[in-house]
């Protein structure tokens, strides 16, 4: 499965070289060596070291629990999927295509393509509940590569996949990435979700407010998720020292947190904050008994979960929803596999809380990919060397014919990968020019000098970086009540007003923003980026469709009748309207006064408070300073002559490292330029990012179950909430008024799916939780040490990644060459 990863805007605009068809980009940089010659000391003939840098070094690359693109970095080198995508050539021919013009799929950890066994499993395993009408797409056997081993030579068999799946779904650990294999996930495995929640006695189901209100009127228990709503935790206790549960009844008068400065009870919350629930922004829940609760959960796996060993080197997967063809192979192009004996040694329990530190250090890391980790220094550097136990060195599959010289070569000429943490673009540039890094992402000040260099490359990327705006009213309220917060001079609550958020949205010229802070990127106006391909066969992108163009015209109020065509209408969109911004800021100030968020005690029409918006940083850098200075400069221009003139300020947070996404989700920091990367070939799956509470940045203040969307399908209006639309679009059967709907791949024509996706995108834009600012892209210099086998950019494979990188010099020759050039190279 191509994982969707949280991605933070950073200055490093370099090509990610990990592998073909991997999630694009990384939001990290690395730390420099102290001298310009240090990286070439001891350079060896016959060694080809790829020297890389990241902004934030990975801390957790456990395939069961990582969350961010930073943490996914090592997985790209040390793991292999069941299948992979490579360029077509004479070794991997694709009929009708010239070499290196499209992709071919090859088995990796698998031995051959999946075999559909839906009919057989339906008959032999009725417990898995394959629909009676289903004849294909619900069950597959996959023969495994018998030559695949872990880096210590231990053979990898079917039992390893099954035991790894058990650990991924372990109900004690509640692993973050387990959701990639159940629910709305493409590869949704039968029984996975039930097993995952085996130790959860009570499940809490979100209620529409009208339903919750009816239950409360009858005196029945309705629950608040106080960990989310009140930002509380188990550290809150009652008078007898009992820890606070996550869900508290609105009828419960027990006071929790007397040891804190914000004690509360469930009854107090529903009384004092009734409007916060009534508007649908904060869900209420009903408690349901979990019929699958079982303390002896391990014994239920075989009869419950559709992932089992059907032979020593064969697994069978049984799916909740049908999946086939390209999307099945795409979903299987990564892996859940772990080395279970090492994994188990990393599991620990502390005061009833279970955790696992597998793949968080050199000692806890195991490889089954082309490289293995050889050293790791937290917050500083990591190093990889070739994994001699990898099957790919001898299987005959990992070779290609060079399109220039016609000779056969083995993929992965790189012998070692050295990755350092460097936070400043200037340091990256210095290291690159000294031959110490393989790529350098051009900054605004570099464009005139290097953009026409023969070593300069430009690549599109998946991510839309949107300015995420904090709407977590409860968290903001608690921060304002802190003893150190001065409400007479500072305000946070204004930013929750829709008029204020709309004003910010039209205060920035996106193209000017990109040109000023990150010229390799461009302005963004949508939630879904330019590279997402909705038709794998033709390579057509979602943004090229009329539906995707029309939704932008509708959202930005463009009258398409005034333009020659939709393309011209879309091209007219700027997202920038300074006059409207001033009107909206005036409207927001009036609303803020009425709500008591701000004051105007002297009656001069100017806000007494400064709305202070904390910008959430992973690491501080000159790039962050430039970005935040720009946001403040243009905000001051937009608010001139309004009640907020000079009264809105973006300020830097402390460096939060890889915890930045949690700070945003919890409302403890206010904004960030961030987005998502991955799954380029399946834009339909992106909808889950905005409705899944474990993924959405705004899950604590936006409830997609409360937001209905009506779409005309085949001449008939159909109304569902956003979660239902997302589920149906991704192959889940959703019942509305007794009728089943499934808009997944192969269930309806692709035009209908695109229509639904566009309507969904427009709705998310209308929340103003996500303000599109930058379309990711890179313009970078590639070292003279190496070159790409394929110069032309490919939508799926890019330029082939590290698999197709060839070297002009080995390490010893490179060290000599750099020295001959006086220690600084010219590009």
From TrEMBL:
Entry protein name: Solute-binding protein family 5 domain-containing protein
GO biological process: peptide transport
Signal peptide (from-to): 1-21
SUPFAM superfamilies, per the entry: Periplasmic binding protein-like II
Solute-binding protein family domain ranges (all copies): 288-696
Keyword annotations of the record: Signal
Coiled coil: none
Molecular function via GO: peptide transmembrane transporter activity
InterPro entries registered for this protein in UniProt: SBP_5 (IPR039424), SBP_5_dom (IPR000914)
Compositional bias segments (type: Polar residues): 26-42
Gene3D superfamilies attached to this UniProt entry: Dipeptide-binding Protein, Domain 3 (3.10.105.10), Periplasmic binding protein-like II (3.40.190.10)
Region (Disordered): 23-45
The organism of origin for this protein: Candidatus Faecousia excrementigallinarum
């Amino acid at each position: 499965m191509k994982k969707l990863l949280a991605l933070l805007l950073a200055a490093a605009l370099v090509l990610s070289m990990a592998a073909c068809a991997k999630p694009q980009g990384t939001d990290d940089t690395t730390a420099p060596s102290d001298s310009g010659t240090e990286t070439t000391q001891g350079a060896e003939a016959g060694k080809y070291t790829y020297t890389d840098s990241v902004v934030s070094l990975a801390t957790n690359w456990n395939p069961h629990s990582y969350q961010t693109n930073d943490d996914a970095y090592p997985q790209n080198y040390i793991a292999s999927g069941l299948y992979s995508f490579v360029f077509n050539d004479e070794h991997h021919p694709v009929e009708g295509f010239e070499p290196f013009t499209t992709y071919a799929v090859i088995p990796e950890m698998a031995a051959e393509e999946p075999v559909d066994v839906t009919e057989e499993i339906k008959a032999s395993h009725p417990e898995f509940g394959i629909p009676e009408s289903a004849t294909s797409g619900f069950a597959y056997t996959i023969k495994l590569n018998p030559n695949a081993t872990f880096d210590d030579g231990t053979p990898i068999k079917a039992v390893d996949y099954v035991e790894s799946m058990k650990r991924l779904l372990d109900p004690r650990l509640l692993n973050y990435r387990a959701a990639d294999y159940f629910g709305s996930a493409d590869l949704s495995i039968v029984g996975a979700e039930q097993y995952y929640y085996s130790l959860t006695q009570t499940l809490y189901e979100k209620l529409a407010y009208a339903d919750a209100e009816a239950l409360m009127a009858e005196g029945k228990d309705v629950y608040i998720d106080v960990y989310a709503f009140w930002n509380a935790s188990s550290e809150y206790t009652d008078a007898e020292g009992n820890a606070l549960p996550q869900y508290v009844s609105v009828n419960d008068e027990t006071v929790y947190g007397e040891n804190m400065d914000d004690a509360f009870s469930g009854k107090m919350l529903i009384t004092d904050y009734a409007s916060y629930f009534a508007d649908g922004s904060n869900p209420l829940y009903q408690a349901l008994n979990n019929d699958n609760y079982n303390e002896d959960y391990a014994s239920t796996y075989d009869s419950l979960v559709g992932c089992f060993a059907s032979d020593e080197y064969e697994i069978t997967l049984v799916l909740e929803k049908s999946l086939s063809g390209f999307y099945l192979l795409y979903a299987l192009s990564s892996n859940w596999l772990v080395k279970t004996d090492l994994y188990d040694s990393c599991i620990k329990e502390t005061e009833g809380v279970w955790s696992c530190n597998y793949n968080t250090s050199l000692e806890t890391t195991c490889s089954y990919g082309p490289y293995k980790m050889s050293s790791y220094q937290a917050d500083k550097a990591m190093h990889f060397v070739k994994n001699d136990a990898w099957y790919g060195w001898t299987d005959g599959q990992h070779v290609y014919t060079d399109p220039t010289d016609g000779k056969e070569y083995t993929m992965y000429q790189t012998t070692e990968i050295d990755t350092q943490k460097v936070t400043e673009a200037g340091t990256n540039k210095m290291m690159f020019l000294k031959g110490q890094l393989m790529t350098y992402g051009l900054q605004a000040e570099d464009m005139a000098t290097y953009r026409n260099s023969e070593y300069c490359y430009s690549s599109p990327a998946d991510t839309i970086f949107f300015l995420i705006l904090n709407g977590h009213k409860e968290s903001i309220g608690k921060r304002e009540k802190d003893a150190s917060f001065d409400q007479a001079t500072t305000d946070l609550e204004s930013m929750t007003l829709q008029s204020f958020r709309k004003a910010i949205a039209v205060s920035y010229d996106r193209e000017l923003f990109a040109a000023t802070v990150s010229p390799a990127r461009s302005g963004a106006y949508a939630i879904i980026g330019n590279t997402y391909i909705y038709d794998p066969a033709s390579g057509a992108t979602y943004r090229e469709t009329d539906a995707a163009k029309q939704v932008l015209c509708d959202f930005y109020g463009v009258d398409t009748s005034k333009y020659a065509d939709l393309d011209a209408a879309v091209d007219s969109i700027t997202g920038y309207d300074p006059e409207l911004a001033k009107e909206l800021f005036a409207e927001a100030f009036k609303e803020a006064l009425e709500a008591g968020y701000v004051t105007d005690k002297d009656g001069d029409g100017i806000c007494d408070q400064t709305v202070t918006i904390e910008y959430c940083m992973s690491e501080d850098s000159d790039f962050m300073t430039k970005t935040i200075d720009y946001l403040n400069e243009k905000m001051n221009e937009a608010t001139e002559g309004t009640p907020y003139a000079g009264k809105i300020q973006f300020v830097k947070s402390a460096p939060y490292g890889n915890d930045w996404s949690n700070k945003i989700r919890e409302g403890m920091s206010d904004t960030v330029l961030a987005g998502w990367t991955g799954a380029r070939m399946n834009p339909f799956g992106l909808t889950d990012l905005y409705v899944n509470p474990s993924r959405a940045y705004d899950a604590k203040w936006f409830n997609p179950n409360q937001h209905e969307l009506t779409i005309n399908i085949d001449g008939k209006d159909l109304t569902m909430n956003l979660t239902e639309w997302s589920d149906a679009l991704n192959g889940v059967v959703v019942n509305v008024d007794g009728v089943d709907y499934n808009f997944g791949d192969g269930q309806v024509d692709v035009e209908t799916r695109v229509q639904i996706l566009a309507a969904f995108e427009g709705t998310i834009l209308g929340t103003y939780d996500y303000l599109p600012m930058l379309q990711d892209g890179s313009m970078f210099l590639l070292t003279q040490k190496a070159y790409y086998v394929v110069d032309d950019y490919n939508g799926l494979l890019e330029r082939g990644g590290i698999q197709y990188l060839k070297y002009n010099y080995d390490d010893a020759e490179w060290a000599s060459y750099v020295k001959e050039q006086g220690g600084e190279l010219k590009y």
